[in-house]
Amino acid sequence: MKLSLFFLASATTLGLCCDPVSAKTVSISIMSGPFRFEPQSVDANPGDTITWTNTTNTQHTISPDQDGAFPEKDPIESKETYSITVPANVGPLPYHCNFHPMNATINVVKP
């Protein structure tokens, strides 16, 4: 019994026992009629990837409300994609388009 617990504790410590939380990709579309980010709010863990796809025939920006919260994309061209890695700070990351009245939020949550 003691030997089994030792091996279980060792395997857990070494990360051999349990599945680690793996990073995921969250997709956001830039839509027209009216212009918007879809979905307008997403939850993501630190280390996840956020990928925007501009499905419109118009340029947009992906601009964080707080300078430096994540790298700005200015502009994102028609049919272009853009990705970031979600930063480690937990909390809301609101962003907007500098060209159009569009805004949305990435909610960074603990895994």
From TrEMBL:
Secretion signal span: 1-23
Domain Blue (type 1) copper span(s) in chain numbering: 25-108
Pfam families (alphabetical): Copper-bind
SUPFAM superfamilies given in the database record: Cupredoxins
Positions of the UniProt region annotated as Disordered: 55-74
Organism lineage: Bacteria, Pseudomonadati, Pseudomonadota, Alphaproteobacteria, Hyphomicrobiales
Claim: Signal is one of the keywords in the record: yes
This protein's name: PetE protein
Entry superkingdom: Bacteria
Keyword field: Copper, Metal-binding, Signal
Gene Ontology terms for molecular function: copper ion binding; electron transfer activity
Membrane-crossing residue ranges in chain numbering: none
